[in-house]
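Budget justification, computational time. The allocation requested in the original proposal was used primarily to generate structure tokens for proteins on the priority list. As evidence of use, we reproduce two of the resulting records. The first is shown immediately below.
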Amino acid sequence: MIENTFMILDGIGQRSERRLWREGVLTWTHFLDTNPSFISPQRKEFFDETLAFACTELNEGNAEYFASAVKRYEHWRLFDVFKNDAVCLDIETNGLPPNSGGCVTLVGMYSREGYKCFVRGENLTEDALNEERS
């Protein structure tokens, strides 16, 4: 999924990315081989350099580069490439502040081992969560 993402390019947002997709530019490789209609030659050259660097970082498995290059709300795009070393974590609370009775009610974890759910009052314990870390 990350190789279909163009929002790592400075100045490319969701609308421009969708426009690239509509023009048939679906991957970094295709971008490097084409000249999208709405990107100037100067910007294209800069974008090509950025994508070539991103390809190198991807081949080296540099998740830190992509964590900073991709907006936080788009980090889900990284999961497929880095899933062997990642976990998607969902923490739910009862919505109250900690000093007013607030507490964690559910922790969901999705990793290469699959999905695990920990529910307050059932199996949500510090020991159970620590066991998952190892």
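The second record produced under the same allocation is shown here.
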Amino acid sequence: MDMKTNAARPDHPGPRGRVSAIDRSLQIIDYLIESDTAFGPYAISKAIGAPLSTVYQITAELVEKGLLSRRDDGTVWLGPRLHYYGLAYAGSLDFLSEATQEMHSLCHEVNETVQICGRDGDHMIVLAMAEPAGHFRVTSRVGTRVPLNWTASGRLLVGHLPEEERIAIFRRSARVSPTAKAVVDPGQLCREAREAFSAHLSIQVGASDFWIACIAAPICDRSGACLATISVVVPEPKVATDGSRLAAAVQLAAERVERAIGAR
């Protein structure tokens, strides 16, 4: 299930219309993560629309500080310091620890790929994933980011928000998917997000990749807001043949996580 999107994040100009060094650093790191491959300064400069001299300077500083690592061919990739940051962040999320345990249990139960997904601005991001051995596999990885309108989880992640906020999010974030099957109309997406959240279930078929379906349920906090989702990713025909069983299993898994974190 190829759920990558290589569009760089938009610039964030400072008071004088310039992009700050911090924003450029984030653009570079985001581009590498979303592309899932190492690149040289020239390719990065072209992709994010930054001056080559600026990219050379910032990548050199990021390499020096361990946020990026430089390979023998001159390309750069994520550095070891980011790994430590990621571990520290994951450790601070109590729900993620519980959700990850439930993710592995559900993977064993249904013998399908299971993901924990969260929201990163206008994108859905894969936070954790479990795959059954020797079985159908998806090509998305932990850290994959895709537009909210491409996935079942994307709708759930904003389904608890007020209508005006949901519409605003989809107006600026909805994108045409690789299969051209993802809904892009903000009004329809707004309604579907609310309906899916109310039902505690969202099913998306063929929107992000051909012949792939996703069945997701929300993991909510004590206030009722969607913290994350747990979902199974399956070949499209399984929605028709085994969809009810999978949907029930996903919903029960989400409920168990909510109970574990005291949200129920």
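A brief technical remark on that second record: The radius of gyration is 19 Å.
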